[in-house]
Write a structure and sequence with these properties.
Layout (H helix, E strand, L loop, with lengths): L4 E6 L1 H4 L4 E6 L13 H8 L3 H7 L10 E6 L2 E7 L8 H17 L4 E4 L17 H14 L10 H10 L5 E6 L4 H26 L7 H15 L2 E5 L1 H6 L3 H7 L7 E7 L11 E12 L19 H16 L4 E11 L11 E3 L5 E3 L7 H12 L6 E6 L4 H6 L4 E5 L2 H14 L3 E3 L4 H6 L7 E2 L7 H10 L8 E6 L5 E2 L9 E2 L4 H10 L5
Parallel strand pairs: 1-6, 2-4, 2-5, 5-6, 9-10, 9-13, 12-16, 13-17, 14-15
Antiparallel strand pairs: 3-4, 7-8, 8-10, 11-12, 14-17, 18-19
One zinc ion binds next to strand 9.
């Protein structure tokens, strides 16, 4: 995917003589053409009434994701449906941006002017209405990711043929009223940066497990760090052994590929974040989860290349953070390993001594994520963060509980959990709280060691979350755990996400940091 330019220019739409102009429009209500206001009215006038006519004659209804083109001389007005006026939110704007890019590509235009940020949104209950900068951010995010594809592994011939058949959209210009240009440019820039990091996360995660090994992931992290001017430390097997990380060592010992533990650091000159100054993100990076000796069934086992999505999200988010330069200190840690069966593999019944000193009875080698994370969480606390948030494709159980719309949110601190829940409502990465507690601790009490790595039949996502909690010093740090097993990849059910990795987590991390800073 070539990089897309995103710019803001005063009155770009009015000045367009021969291009594509994307216009945001609401759905018909009870079969009636909605009143065209603001930029909608201006553009209807500019098109000499063709927008209203498209509604009136039924060619366009304004439903979410719908696009329709009307032409006046050399200008093509690209009508983009936002859906029912009252329901239009930031998510509708992301999807509208993606729809506009896709349709522009079909029109074989290399650039377009967009007014999609220019409609005001209603405030949702208990929330403030998004301002123009936040709207521009959402649109830009969608515009950029509307062009996302993962074609790195097709042959040269196939790629060349596809490139001939399809135009790439190179730029989108946000048309502003003069007074808003700065705010729109700032939001659009943020949206582009976050979208590029999301695309990077998808590229990592979609990469096949014979390429994307722990060593390869560490090399990618090194490149991100170099390009962004971040400090990075990569622990190989000798250092991991020295730190006595029995969880990460146990899980990786069945594979010929050695594990890697990556630590990246973004340190601004000035820290103004409140109420927390130093934030650590931690990701599960199992580059392939066969289940190990407790091997998984063959159907869909290929999807377990996505078991590295948490680690990929952390590395990719660091790229966005390096570009956005928030005034908050950030540590990113990702633990990478394969989980394979072999004559050297760890076994059910094995007892592992974790870096923290706690011992774990392995009753199922497929519950490996919590073992590598236990060590990664312990390790990151040496950096003394105020907050730790981990991202992990941890359990199939979270998919049974919540399905695709929400990631599971667990943790030990109500203030942190509440903040993340609120962020989820705006970022488009929705989160739903699930419980932890002594009852779940009881379910993972060990017979021959301190704890065991699986609970009983029920509450699989919660015994997994509770397991992680055993490695957190709760009097020193606030911690939240996001189970992204159901949300990290999908069939491509929205215009800015094709089949494959979604890049979930990147927006949550960036929005969380943003929430610690005054004003947007
Ligand atoms: N990586 C899986 C979780 C997973 C399953 C993610 C399906 C996405 C889709 C994890 O390592 C795992 O296998 N967990 C087991 C735990 C069980 C053995 C207690 C699971 O969820 O079945
Ligand atoms: Zn597993
Ligand atoms: Zn796993």
């Amino acid at each position: 995917m070539a990089k897309m330019k995103v710019e803001a220019k005063a009155d770009a739409a009015k000045k367009t003589k021969d291009g594509v102009v994307a216009v945001p429009l609401f759905a018909k209500e009870k079969g009636k053409t909605p009143k065209l206001e603001g930029v909608q009215k201006t553009m209807d006038d500019a098109s000499e009434g063709r927008i209203k006519a498209a509604y009136d004659d039924g060619a366009f209804t304004g439903s979410k994701g719908e696009t329709h083109v009307v032409r006046l001389r050399d200008v093509r007005f690209l009508l983009v449906g936002l859906g029912e006026r009252k329901k239009v939110d930031l998510e509708a704007l992301r999807q509208a941006g993606a729809a506009a890019t896709k349709r522009t590509r079909k029109l074989e235009a290399k650039r377009y002017v967009s007014l999609l940020h220019a409609v005001e949104l209603e405030a949702k209950e208990g929330e403030t209405a998004p301002d123009v900068s936040e709207r521009a951010e959402a649109v830009a995010f969608g515009c950029v990711l509307g062009a996302y594809k993962f074609d790195r592994f097709f042959s040269k011939e196939k790629k060349e043929k596809d490139e001939k058949d399809e135009t790439e959209v190179e730029a989108v210009v946000f048309s502003t009223t003069g007074a808003e240009t700065k705010a729109v440019a700032k939001g659009a820039d943020r949206g582009r940066i976050i979208a590029e990091a999301t695309a990077l996360c998808r590229d990592f995660a979609n990469s096949p497990p014979n390429v994307a090994t722990p060593r390869w992931m560490a090399d990618q992290a090194r490149r991100v760090a170099r390009e962004g001017g971040l400090r990075i430390k990569v622990l190989g097997k000798p250092e991991i052994t020295r730190h006595k990380m029995g969880g990460l060592l146990g899980v990786s010992q069945g594979s010929t590929e050695p594990p890697r533990l990556v630590l990246m650091e973004y340190k601004p000159r000035k820290v103004s974040a409140k109420p927390w100054k130093k934030i650590a993100f931690v990701g599960k990076g199992i580059t392939f989860d066969s289940g190990g000796i407790s091997i998984k069934p063959s159907p869909s086992m290929d999807e377990m290349k996505f078991d590295k999505c948490g680690g990929c999200a952390v590395v990719a988010a660091m790229q966005a953070i390096a570009a956005l330069k928030p005034e908050v200190h950030v540590i990113g840690v990702a633990a990478f390993s394969e989980n394979l069966p072999s004559g050297k593999a760890y076994k059910p019944g094995d007892i592992l001594r974790m870096a923290s000193g706690k011992t774990v009875e392995v009753l199922n080698t497929d519950a490996e994520g919590r073992l590598i994370l236990g060590d990664a969480l312990w390790y990151v606390q040496r950096e003394k963060p105020d907050v730790i948030i981990d991202f992990a494709t941890l359990t199939g159980a979270i998919d049974i509980a919540l399905g695709k719309p929400y990631s599971g949110l667990m943790g030990s601190d109500d203030e942190l959990i509440d903040r993340l829940y609120e962020i989820g409502k705006r970022s488009g990465e929705k989160l739903w709280r699930m419980p932890l507690g002594d009852e779940y601790q009881e379910m993972i009490k060990g017979t021959y060691a301190d704890i065991k790595n699986i609970g009983g039949r029920g509450g699989g996502a919660l015994t997994a979350g509770q397991f992680l909690r055993n490695f957190i010093e709760e009097d020193k740090v606030k911690w939240a755990h996001l189970d992204i097993a159901a949300t990290a990849w999908g069939d491509g059910d929205n215009p800015y996400t094709p089949k494959g990795a979604t890049g979930v987590g990147v927006r949550t991390m960036v929005s969380f940091l943003d929430s610690l800073l005054d004003g947007r």
